[in-house]
Amino acid sequence: LLLHRNVMPKTLEGQITMEKTPSYFVTNEAPRRIHSMAKDTKLIVVVRNPVTRAISDYTQTLSKKPEIPTFEVLAFKNRTLGLIDASWSAIRIGIYALHLENWLQYFPLSQILFVSGERLITDPAGEMAKVQDFLGLKRIVTEKHFYFNKTKGFPCLKKPEDSSAPRCLGKSKGRTHPKIDPDVIHRLRKFYKPFNVMFYQMTGQDFQWE
């Protein structure tokens, strides 16, 4: 706890300290450790269509290791039989229901906000309104703070009263995805469907990935 606190920013009364580590959601020990440290912690999880997420994950890895096998090769244990390799992290991370089950052993659903990655692109102000409400903050970030960057394919953040350049996502975001065999996409959608349905039931939210 002391080590963790030392790397966190100093927080004044009335401020909220936030930390972003995507791997927490899929790390088995994380819920227990966070609960023992601060059981009132509010958790925000950004999720997107697990098929798109897996391809995006692969694209990120490919940019660093161009020699890796194709997505189609890595996604299957046995492609002839259509057996998906759920042990491959790019696939496993998207089984959200499995990971959420672990978190719900320690945290009530009321302490977790699920943000739609798709709506964060199409309606960033709407999703940010939910985040601000969830954290008990005044709705300061609104529509006027966003504009869509067609080159990146993502919204950028701007300060309307400020002349400084807008904040856009870095070069590691918005990469062009490789073309994936449509049959592989179909099989992955089929693989994820029951897990997605379970996730919708657990969260009470339909993310409409089907």
Automatic annotation (TrEMBL):
<dbReference type="GO" id="GO:0008467">
    <property type="term" value="F:[heparan sulfate]-glucosamine 3-sulfotransferase activity"/>
</dbReference>
<feature type="binding site">
    <location>
        <position position="48"/>
    </location>
    <ligand>
        <name>3'-phosphoadenylyl sulfate</name>
    </ligand>
</feature>
<dbReference type="Pfam" id="PF00685">
    <property type="entry name" value="Sulfotransfer_1"/>
</dbReference>
<keyword id="KW-0325">Glycoprotein</keyword>
<comment type="similarity">
    <text>Belongs to the sulfotransferase 1 family.</text>
</comment>
<feature type="domain" description="Sulfotransferase">
    <location>
        <begin position="34"/>
        <end position="193"/>
    </location>
</feature>
<dbReference type="InterPro" id="IPR037359">
    <property type="entry name" value="NST/OST"/>
</dbReference>
<keyword id="KW-0808">Transferase</keyword>
<feature type="binding site">
    <location>
        <begin position="173"/>
        <end position="177"/>
    </location>
    <ligand>
        <name>3'-phosphoadenylyl sulfate</name>
    </ligand>
</feature>
<keyword id="KW-1015">Disulfide bond</keyword>
<feature type="disulfide bond">
    <location>
        <begin position="156"/>
        <end position="168"/>
    </location>
</feature>
<dbReference type="InterPro" id="IPR000863">
    <property type="entry name" value="Sulfotransferase_dom"/>
</dbReference>
<dbReference type="InterPro" id="IPR027417">
    <property type="entry name" value="P-loop_NTPase"/>
</dbReference>
<feature type="binding site">
    <location>
        <position position="56"/>
    </location>
    <ligand>
        <name>3'-phosphoadenylyl sulfate</name>
    </ligand>
</feature>
<protein>
    <recommendedName>
        <fullName>Sulfotransferase</fullName>
        <ecNumber>2.8.2.-</ecNumber>
    </recommendedName>
</protein>
